[in-house]
Amino acid sequence: MSHRIVCQFSCGAASAVATKMTLAQYSATHDVQIINAFIKNEHPDNRRFLTDCEQWLAREITVLRDTKYGADTVQVFRRVQFMKGPYGAPCTRILKRKLLATWEKRGDVLVLGYTVEEEDRFDDFVERNPDRPVIAPLIEAGLGKEDCKAMVLRASIRLPYMYELGYDNANCIGCVKGGEGYWRAIREDFPVEFEELAQVQEEIGPDAYLHRNRKTNERFSLRELGDGPVRRNEKMPSCSFFCEIAEQVYSA
Ligand code: SF4
């Protein structure tokens, strides 16, 4: 019996196109599954995008949802008492990676939505995970992030609202992987979410700080984030089931 092929749908354009291509190539010969992890802190429009893509793909997407933390990154931060560590973010590890582990089967072939811009990251991933069968259809087809967005739009699907605002992906509102410019944008566009995360940092203290002063190398809080460039389009990896593992590649 052939192994399952598992597409991880992250509510981003690249993962949508990677899934579409995988179905076209393998659905006649393999059991192709599509999974998504529900995260409370993503923009609600991500769910609209998922539903639209189900129609485009003509397939249902299996939505996995953490119950221990209410699928809520803020609850995770309060529990683990940090927001980002040297080996990645605890939110994606707990709310995505651990969830996938409860569902996956030995031999599953994972479809990763890396684009051509991310070929190095894919190569590193393969090198570090030699026993994990993976495919990257976007790289095979030479497709970049902008290609994927255009393909989604050509399918008459509106991109997730976060893209429409100018963000680089449809990650959580206030993704811990973002830099200063990104967080200034979140402060402007989503003051409620920004305030909640600033409060969590105040509760936890410096272990939860995300940024460092470039001159002194001291960490500082969101509350201390000064004025400066606002960067909605700051490049940041989409949050997949594997971004925590992928992050280890460049954090190590
Ligand atoms: S998008 Fe960012 S904040 Fe949300 S789970 Fe992924 S790493 Fe954490």
Question: Which secondary structure elements does this structure contain, and how are they paired or packed?
Answer:
Elements: E1 5-8, H1 13-26, E2 32-37, H2 45-57, E3 62-64, H3 73-80, H4 90-103, E4 109-111, H5 119-128, E5 134-135, H6 137-140, H7 145-154, H8 161-165, H9 180-189, H10 191-204, E6 211-212, E7 219-220, H11 243-251
Parallel strand pairs: 1-2, 1-4, 2-3, 4-5
Antiparallel strand pairs: 6-7
The chain binds iron/sulfur cluster.
Tell me the name of the CATH homologous superfamily of the domain at 5-165 and 237-251. Answer: HUPs
Main sheet, how many strands, which sense, barrel?
A: 5 strands, parallel
Return the CATH architecture of the domain at 5-165 and 237-251: 3-Layer(aba) Sandwich
Radius of gyration: 18 Å
Distance between the termini: 37 Å
**SSE series:** EHEHEHHEHEHHHHHEEH
Top-tier CATH class of the domain at 5-165 and 237-251: Alpha Beta
Ligand identities: iron/sulfur cluster
Shape: globular
The helix count comes to: 11
Mean pLDDT equals 92
- The helix-and-strand class reads alpha/beta
Low-confidence stretches: 244-252
Proportion of strand residues: 5-15%
| Oligomeric state as shown | single chain
